[in-house]
Amino acid sequence: MASSGVDRRHTASAMGLPGYNKGTSIHEEARIDSESNSGQVAADSTHRQLRPRHIQLIGIGGTIGTAIFVQIGRGLLNGGPGSLFLAFLIWCTFILAMTKCAAEMVTYNPISSPFIRFAGRYVDEAFGVAAGYNFFIFQAALVPWEIVACNLIIHYWSDAVPTGATQTFTCLLRSSYLTSISGIINVFAVKWYGESEFWLAIGKMILIIGLLSFTFVVMVGGNPMGDRFGFRYWNNPGAFAELYSTGSLGRFQGFLQCLITAAFIVAGADYVSMASGEAENPRVVMPRAFNAVFYRLTTFFVLGSLAVGILVPYDSEELANAFEKGLSGAAASPYVIAMNRLNIRVLPDIVNAMILTSAYSAGNSYVYCASRSLFGLALEGKAPKIFRKCTKNGVPIYCVAFTLAISLVSFLQVSNNTAVVLNWFVSLVTASQLINFCVISFTFLKWKEACDVQGLDRNSLPHTSSWQPFTAYYALTGCFTMIFLSGYTVFLPGNWDVPNFIFSYAMIGVFPVIFFGWKFIKKTKWLKPEEVILRTSEVDDIEEYTRNYVERTPKTRWHGYVDRVFS
């Protein structure tokens, strides 16, 4: 079979598992079995150094980026507050369904790049390769997106922007600096990435909870103007904006555009899953992390979409200046726009600065996930061998370097309007993310089918998702439909644009090309349920690790307190 098994020489000690008290080395270079036709991996050389609090906050840090503070304003501009809130509420149900699928598979076998490798093991090796490169492109494209978004945010302070060569140099300097700081923390041991992301994620939590509280206070009159505006903007200019057309069709297209915005902004299980291969005691920690996704979706995305619709009217000139024209001095965040409209001083600058900090944190997560997905491909022989190389601290250094090199495409904004380049990346990322969600949902269906045929009791697993397979079909149907709708606007009269078309639909073509190309070259096989190997040596290793796990003593009393609160 093409990819249904793993080398039985894979050992727990080689995985770098802390708490495994056999007295063996915790680091071994990843090896490919030269005798295996499928090129399966003999050892994973990353280290399990992420504590429970790191996993919880990585899940938050990866989902809260610039988009939830800035890009959400474009949804408001296109569809109005009612459409925005309804779209986010509906889309979160699809993401929750997909997350439940990922949780069951990942908690059973918590390995590096889990859903990418599961796609190859439970469906078809070629399917896993296509899924892996799609996810890598998805995460790698998010790094330059954050850089471009940061430049858009910085425009708030730059009323007098230099022109000509000076402007080009300034833009290049900013982009280079942002690229550098996005990669610095990723070249150190993963525990330092986890620690930095922990504190940065706490900052983002404070920011979004603070902004939600700010929304409530000012809407009931707690502002310098004493204006109790409540839901005023839902009545004037209205809850549902017309887009491209008038009447019901225009309002529906506005809602659809909000749904596309939600498909870009809302993230689910990706970041939690990618950390599973480096998590301490994953059979205990990962189920808790996945269960917390529901609360993140509700608090950050649903309530966030409601808040921006309360604070700013959809016909705001400031929003249009930022997203349609990319003008200097324009506030891109609806929250900052609202503060300026209410004559609140100083706070807009503080919030804008904190949004920039959140962009740095999100950039860290994207570099981490992109590098680990490429590392996972290399581990299974699907990417060049050089990407299997790790530092002594367990960092896949060449994967990190390659990801940072891709981020240099953010220099496109030098020759194009920042807002235009931002839209290109949004289109590319949205399509790739939707394909990734479809991969997870479809892989789960094949996993469940194999479990049923082979008699594996899913109720005995660390985490069992409810209402299956209907939950998986629901997620798959919604995400698959949105793949084709995400760029539909280029087909409307007068809207044709070649770059927008390419960025919106390129991955729809790239995915099958990789799939069929690999299948043709490697002669891979679409696995039947009875051919899937559910219990690999990795499962044996993780079960032995769990039995022998000894929890690390916190370095200080403060660390112990923080561990208890966020575990």
Automatic annotation (TrEMBL):
Superkingdom to which the source organism belongs: Eukaryota
GO molecular function terms attached to this record: amino acid transmembrane transporter activity
Amino acid permease/ SLC12A domain: residues covered: 54-526
Protein name (Swiss-Prot/TrEMBL): Amino acid permease/ SLC12A domain-containing protein
Compositional bias ranges of the Basic and acidic residues kind: 1-10
Keywords: Amino-acid transport, Membrane, Transmembrane, Transmembrane helix, Transport
Pfam family, one: AA_permease
Region (Disordered), start-end ranges: 1-22
Location of the protein in the cell: Membrane
An example Gene Ontology CC term for this record: membrane
